[in-house]
Structure formats: C-alpha cells, structure tokens
Amino acid sequence: LISLLFVIVLMGPAASAANHPISFNENVYEVDIQINRSAVPALYFNDLTLKTYVGSPIQAYVSADGGQIDSVLSSGHLVYSTSADQVKITVAVPSGETLPQGFGATTKTVLKDNKQWAWSHGFDDNTYLFAGMELFEQKGWRGTIYLIGELLDERDEYWRVDLPAARRALENGWSLGSHSWGSQCDDPNQSAVKRSFDKLEEIVASTTRNDYVVTAFAAPCFVSEYHPVVMDMRNNGITNVQFNESGGWHFQITETNAPAFQNGNHTALGVNFDEPIGRDFGIEYLGITEMKFRIDWAASNSNSSRHIWYNTGAHGSQEDDIAPVLDYVFDTYGPNAANTVWVAPADEIYGYILVRDFSVVTVGTAQIVSGVIASQTPTMTSTVPPIASNTPLPTSTPFPPLPPSAQNELIFITMVMVE
C-alpha cells in the first residue's frame, strides 16, 4: 500500500492531530474554493483571509498555486490568507466517519490573518525620515512614506529621501504615497497631484517591485479641498489613487460604513470609500502616556463585531517619540504578547478592505478521494458575496453596486461521494 504524509502548518496556538501517513482506513476529501477579484480595483496588496469550517479531521491543510500555504486550525476552522484565485482544502477523516455538517462553510475575516485591530503609520515630507523608518524595520514592520514630488531627484543624501532612497525603501517593503508635487497647502489642483503620482510611478517602474500600485495620498496641511480632487481622479481613473489621508477621525471601524462608535473622548467611524482616512500626529507632541491610552483604546474597543484601525503620522526627526510607542505596541499587542494587532502600511490595510468587500468567494462540492490526493474539477455550489454597503457608491466610481448580503454569511455545501 502507498501512504502519503499530510502536514498541517501552524502559525499560532492551535491544536491538531499528530502528523502520520494516511492509510486506506481513512478517507481523504478535497474541496475547491475560488476567489473572484474582478470587481476589485488595481491593487498591489490582494490578500484575503478566509476561515473554512472543517471540524476535527485527523489531518488538514490548504494549497494554492501548486504548493501548500500557511494555515491555522482553530476551533474547527482553517484560517489562511492568500492572493491566489483558487485554493484547495484537503482533510483526512476515519473511514467510518462522515464529514461534519457544514463542512466547507467559508467566511471572510474582517482583518488580515483574523487580527483584532490594525495600526498604520506614515512619514511625511522626505526629510530626516531614515532613523524613524529604521525603528519600524527593527520590529519587522513597515509603513508609508508620503513624498513631495518636486524634492525627488537623483541625489542620495543622508538627510533626505531622494530617488535612490525611495527605490531602496520600496524594495525593502515600504509603501509609497503622494504628498502632492510641492506640498501646496493653498493650491489643491489636480495637475500637481497627478504630477506627483507620475513621479512615483517612475520610481516603481525602476525597481524589482515594479508591480507595486501607488494608491495612497496624504493631503498637505490637512487641506480638505484636496479630497474632491483625489476622488475625481479615483472615479475617472486618472491615477490609481484609492484614498486620501487627511484631518479628522483617525480611528476607523474597518467594517464598512459601520455606525459611529464613541467611548469617552474618542470616536471611531466606519470606513467609507468616499471619505478621507484621518491621521493622528499626536505621536509628535502628546507624550507616551497619552499615546498608550489611544493605542489601548483602539485595542480594547475592538471585538468580534468591531475591528478598529488606528492611523498615525509623523515628520522627520521624531524617533525619540516614535521609539517608545513602537515598543509599547510590540510588547503589549504584538509578537511579544497576544499578537492581536496587524501593523501594516495604510495602503495594505485599505487594500485588504477593498478585496474583502468586492471579491466573491465560491465554495465547491466536497469530493472523496479514496486515500490519495487527486485533482478534481469542482462543481461550484455556493458563494460568499461582497459585503453590503449601507451607502451606495456614486455612479462614477469604478466599483460596482454591492449586493445586499452580509460578509459573514456561512456557506453550506453538499458532500458528494465518489467511488
């Protein structure tokens, strides 16, 4: 008899049976899951985290693009993130048992890797940014550098992000955003914004990360008149911009268009694709005590039905203020602790929300494979639709109308026994 070894990859605390060869006293099942991103705008970050119910199999794993991908088995669900268009779930159960009712039911998680809350940070204005950026890199994290286009040239000086430094930052996992052409606080015109995006696209094209898509804009001086300019560029495809960071609410609820939530002195608003994302520059002047309070507020007010995104910003030469904030997040909510926070550039977080809301997930029919893995052509039976939006998007936007379906609707499939 030929036996195959099936391995489950664990990324966090989760229980699974010990690895062992599959025997002919066990049945192997496969189910294909397809992810249709055709309604998602052009993005670089296309990951989607799914949670699929598998019960308590002897073995279970997820594969995509010809190889196994990381997954966590927790409370009967496989949790996994992928940018692939199709994944396959493989499980082994004793031959005398059937698959549990609801096997294959799949939901989209609100945040990547099923995290509880999110934090993003951006650096503005090109100058004296390297020390602060290095602090993030020491934690294994990255953010966004919002660059003034007219300051970008081929010089490579220690105090300024020039073209060579911008290329290195992108290659090293940082995100790039536009801070307009000359950071004109009193001149929010489309030509200046587009010129800055064109410059950033030139940087992207000259790197090995040349499929990166610049989607982020930060309004100079928080000038609100930039927002309609940026939205017009998004809606008419003038650039790939998707969102504008400006003044206002820096706590966002990542459940789209969720009602406002207030607790104490702070309020969080649901992400609205037609409104700016707020920026909090308090890291520069509030002190560590207040910053800890704001971080704790985002974490403690996040739960299974509300996931808060806290977006901060700073200029150069602020590393003495940034360092204790980074340490606190890392040691309280990061890998050194409960690991409940997702720290990522703003365009990655915003991109995840877009993929989550506008992709369609279709679950195939479970197939029994008689103890060996075989490629199956799935019969698609059910879908996880895009998340409903309470406010319809304008007709000029590239996004299609959303069906009135909830994000976390469970998908149930029928098991088909194949001889």
**Low-confidence stretches at least 5 residues in length (pLDDT < 50)?**
1-24, 372-382, 387-419
User: H/E order of the elements?
Assistant: EEEEEEEEEHEHEHEHEEEEEHEHEHEEE
| DSSP helix fraction | 10-25%
Evaluate the radius of gyration.
23 Å
Beta strand count: 22
Shape: globular
Distance linking N and C termini: 18 Å
> How does the major sheet shape up?
11 strands, mixed
In words, what does this structure look like?
With 419 residues, this protein is α/β, with parallel strands linked by helices. 20% of the residues lie in helices and 25% in strands. It has 7 helices and 22 strands. The protein has helices spanning 130-138, 163-171, 190-205, 226-235, 288-300, 319-333, 346-358; strands spanning 26-36, 48-53, 59-64, 67-69, 72-74, 77-82, 86-94, 106-108, 117-124, 144-147, 175-178, 216-218, 243-246, 251-253, 261-263, 266-270, 277-278, 308-314, 341-343, 360-364, 367-368, 380-384. The strands form 3 sheets. Strands 9, 10, 11, 12, 13, 14, 15, 16, 17, 18 and 19 form an 11-stranded mixed sheet that branches. Strands 1, 3, 4, 7, 20, 21 and 22 form a 7-stranded antiparallel sheet that branches. Strands 5-6-2-8 form a 4-stranded antiparallel sheet. Helix 1 (130-138) packs parallel to helix 6 (319-333) and helix 5 packs parallel to helix 6. It is globular, with a radius of gyration of 23 Å. The model is unreliable at 1-24, 372-382 and 387-419 (pLDDT under 50).
